[in-house]
From TrEMBL:
The keyword Protein transport appears for this protein: no
Family to which this protein belongs: Belongs to the ABC transporter superfamily. ABCB family. Multidrug resistance exporter (TC 3.A.1.201) subfamily.
Membrane-spanning residues: 6-29, 49-69
A Pfam family this chain is assigned to: ABC_membrane
Domain ABC transmembrane type-1: 10-138
Full protein name: Uncharacterized protein
GO cellular component: a single term: mitochondrial inner membrane
Organism field: Rotaria sordida
Keyword Membrane found: yes
């Protein structure tokens, strides 16, 4: 990976050789100084000593320049290698499927360490250490002979070599980790351009006997032969207890994971045969905890899109009922939201997230408990914005996960999930009249 800098590396190694070879000249000059004392004339001795001393000074300047070039060459090549490894590793990480990041060894902290520490460890292996060793060996071997301290210097060198090998071992281990990452083929390639794109996407979704198990929890069956048909432009709600598989359904639609068995059909086509970027561009997700970047409000709304006009941004914020709030801010749409939107309240972040979804004009709207973490006032405001988003496009399909059953009474279909499969389905009135699982949940919700 350092091939583009081969000239710089070659210069560095040439400087190492010259630097090491020049060390022997000091011994030669020292001999010349000693020989100067054979002359009887004081002036002649003085002349030879000064001349040799000047040559020693000149040699020191030359060695300084050689070492400076050597260190600079290895530093440049090492930093370029580190930069290249980090960039390639980050690109490879972006390609990986979500399941890859569920593993403890691939947590955010571990990955940050890998990108910083491991890449730097590889730089140490290719940096100045090897060049310094090449020069110091020749120089210190002369010192050993002159001062007769072989045992002490041997001990110091043994420690130095041991430390060097420890660094090399760490560098090799880091290099192996990076090469494993570079060679890994993700099960769901986020950078893939392959797959079919539907010309006239209607928004029909079908879960056909879907079974799903998270790769990191192989003993837990999350979805068990799930059968669900969502017609185009239909508003469907999913309800059920915690861990019944509601959010998993949305993650499968976003193709964060692939089903263990069964099929998910989008307009009759297996989702695995469709282009991944195309699928995600037609699904708009509003989750419980919206993620905003440390950018301006306008940049957050248009994030990832090109040539977005301010008019489109204002149109999206107006539909999300956040435009008036933004206009009241001193910097308006140029206001920075802080890390993870820390400068905004939960309701304000959620409405900006809704505007970010609406500006993309998704065919399918996915709402994953979008108001569950809010107080009653913010919940009502955000709920009105969500209902407006569902009404504005009659052809838009909506899949809603709700924590309050009062927000889904108008849905065309309500499905009650339990242990990974649907136990009840129907409209609000139909399910209430059955007095089954939904009715019990509704009664419990009213008590709260």
């Amino acid at each position: 990976m350092n091939s583009p800098e081969w000239i710089i590396i070659l210069i560095g190694y040439i400087m190492c050789v010259l630097n090491g070879a020049a060390q022997s000249l000091f011994a030669f000059l020292l001999v010349k100084i000693v020989e100067a004392f054979k002359y009887c004339s004081t002036s002649e001795r003085h002349h030879h000593v000064l001349l040799t001393s000047f040559l020693c000074l000149l040699l020191g300047v030359v060695l300084f320049i050689l070492r400076l070039i050597q260190y600079t060459a290895f530093a440049i090549s090492g930093s370029k290698l580190t930069q290249r490894i980090r960039s390639k590793a980050f690109a490879c990480l972006l390609r990986q499927e979500v399941a890859y990041f569920d593993r403890p060894e691939n947590s955010s902290g571990a990955i940050c360490t890998r990108l910083s520490t491991d890449a730097s460890a590889i730089q140490e292996m290719t940096g100045t250490r090897l060049g310094v060793l090449a020069a110091e060996v020749i120089h210190n071997m002369r010192t050993i002979k002159q001062l007769s301290i072989e045992k002490e210097v041997l001990r110091q060198y043994s420690e130095l070599i041991h430390k060097l090998f420890m660094h090399i071992a760490a560098s090799i281990s880091a290099a192996e980790a990076f090469f494993d990452l570079f060679d890994r083929k993700p099960t769901i390639d986020n950078a893939s351009t392959e797959g079919q794109e539907l010309v006239d996407f209607r928004g029909e979704i079908k879960f056909d006997q879907v079974k799903f198990i998270y790769p990191t929890r192989p003993t837990s069956i999350i979805l068990n032969k799930l059968q669900l048909n969502i017609k185009p432009s239909q508003h469907v709600a999913l309800v059920g207890g915690s861990g019944c598989g509601k959010s998993t359904i949305i993650q499968l639609l976003e193709r964060f994971y692939d089903v263990t068995s069964g099929k998910i059909l989008i307009d009759g086509i297996d989702i695995r045969k469709l282009n991944l970027q195309w699928v995600r561009s037609h699904f708009g997700l509003v989750s419980q905890e919206p993620v905003l970047f440390d950018l301006t409000i306008a940049e957050n709304i248009a994030y990832g899109l090109e040539n977005v006009s301010m008019e489109d941004i204002i149109n999206a914020t107006s539909r999300a009922d956040i435009h008036q709030f933004i206009e009241q801010l001193p910097q308006g749409y140029e206001t920075r939201v802080g890390l993870k939107g820390s400068f905004l309240s939960g309701g304000e972040k959620q409405r900006i997230a809704i505007a970010r979804v609406l500006i993309r004009r998704p065919k399918v709207l996915l709402l994953d408990e979008a108001t569950s973490a809010m107080d009653s006032r913010n919940e009502q405001i955000v709920q009105e914005a969500l209902e407006q988003a569902q009404r504005e496009d009659p052809s838009r399909t909506s899949l809603i996960i709700a924590h309050r059953l009062s927000t889904i009474r108008s849905c065309d279909l309500i499905c009650v999930l339990d242990r990974g499969h649907i136990v009840e389905r129907g409209t609000h009135i139909e399910l209430t009249q059955r007095r089954g699982a939904y009715y019990k949940m509704l009664a419990h919700d009213n008590l709260q």
